[in-house]
Amino acid sequence: MVLPIFKYHPNPISTGAIVQSDEECECCQQASGYIYTASFYTKEEVSFICPWCIADGSAAAKFEGMFSDDFFLLQAGVVEEVIDEVCDRTPGYHSWQQEQWQSHCSTACEFHGDASKKELAELSGIKLTQFLNENRFKLEQWQSMLSVYEEGGNPAIYKFKCTECSHYLASINLAGSASIILAG
Question: pTM for this structure?
């Protein structure tokens, strides 16, 4: 069975947001072979949702929920149609703290999982200086954080890709949103 295509989360299996499972979806009452595993913000207790009920928006509608918080996209001025697609019809992602869906070029970015230590270690020059200044990091703090960083660990640094210009951004969920362009 071919999974739905998610524009803003192109490979939810590799990020762990969707896994193989024999569980029945609580929205469509079908066992499709896959279940969503990340956050779902709703008043109801919902444990199992299939990718198809995410993609067509039926899970968000039925349970009056969202897969990602819309706050950061609203703050960035992203159009409502895109926000609705990200929050109501796109798998969210696992995060140590509440996820912060990134935007660039006035639109939502694609989520690509944890940034690799190699990508982060290669940051230098103007991009690194700008990131450190905007987020009040000292170089020593950044280097200390990188020395203990590992994918899937804490601290968590997530990788996003702009759907317009293809720049990669790294997002750290600290107090406020921190992001940096990794490469063009």
Answer: 0.87
